[in-house]
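Title: [Solved] Steroid 5-alpha reductase C-terminal domain-containing protein 3D structure

Original question kept below for reference.
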Amino acid sequence: MANVRNAALAFIVPWPSILFYIAFLKLCHSSSTSEIWRWCWAHPIALVNALFFFNVDLLFWVISLLQNSTWLIDLYWTVLPVMMAHYYSTHPYSQTNLWRSTIVIILTWVWSIRLTHNYFRREEWQWGVREDWRFADMRRKYANNWWWMSFFAVYVSQQIFLVGVCLPIYAIHNSQHPWNALDYFATLVCTTGIIFAYFADTQLYNFVQKNKILRELGATTKPNLEEGLWALSRHPNYFGEQLWWWGLVIYAWNIGQGWTFMGAAANTCCLAYVTVLVERKMVAEKYREEEYSKYQGTTSVWIPWFKLKQKFDKDQKKH
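Solution (posted by the thread starter after getting help):
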């Protein structure tokens, strides 16, 4: 019953923004257009922030207090960029190159489908069973203050990151600059990022499932994944995700909107911090501490590279 309720909730929650935007599109060209509709027409980025604040920050926050879980924002991280892509492409203020707009929207859908699929298979196709472990840790750490801190730590912060990383999509739908060779390069970078992240996440998922089976059989599990893409990078999924967002920046830079790199840069900094948290968590687990420390000494953090065996051996000899 909880699974069905959460699924229905996930489909219902974005409708306040959707209905508002539909009303805006119908009335923005009316002769009796009010000030609010004129403001919405003239300020597409401000409008998307207003919708995000009321529909996600406030509504999702209230739901999280009622459910004692922030699971919705984790799911909607995979959905909101698609919604923003269609918002920017259909906004009356937009002007686009058809090829660039179409390709970016298709790629955003592919990125979203990949990430949503990975989310649900990781959650065993359940809705809202658990929240992100980082937020769960914060919930335990801040206890009685988490109810109000979560509004800023989970929702307002996500607004900054999500609206920020989607700024190139806004720029793409605010220019009729002709398609050129750099657009092909941007498409290649975005596509490579999606494919790279897919295979990295799939290898991780298969590794986790195999360990789960071994535990059920009472056999010894493998502490670390060091095969496939994970032999070349400790976080190949993060590397693929960064390629995707910086590929969008290349589109924007190509049309003279390089300022939009700010969102991707902030996201990269955040992911670097998350990488530190993940690695601390891995090393803190006694059964994998030694193996993961060795893995850290021989394997690149993000960018795929050859094993650094000599470096690790030298470090070991020093000790």
